[in-house]
Amino acid sequence: QSALTQPPSVSGSPGQSVTLSCTGTNSDIGSYHRVAWYQQSPGTAPKLMIYDVSDRPSGVPDRFSGSKSGNTASLTISGLQAEDEADYYCSSYTSNRTLIFGGGTKLTVL
Amino acid sequence: EVQVVESGGNVVRPGGSLRLSCTASGFTFDDYAMSWVRQAPGKGLEWVSTIYWGGGTNYADSVKGRFIISRDNDKSSLSLQMNSLRAEDTALYYCVRGVRGIIIASFDFWGLGTMVSVSS
Question: What is the DSSP letter of B29?
Answer without folding.
Answer: G
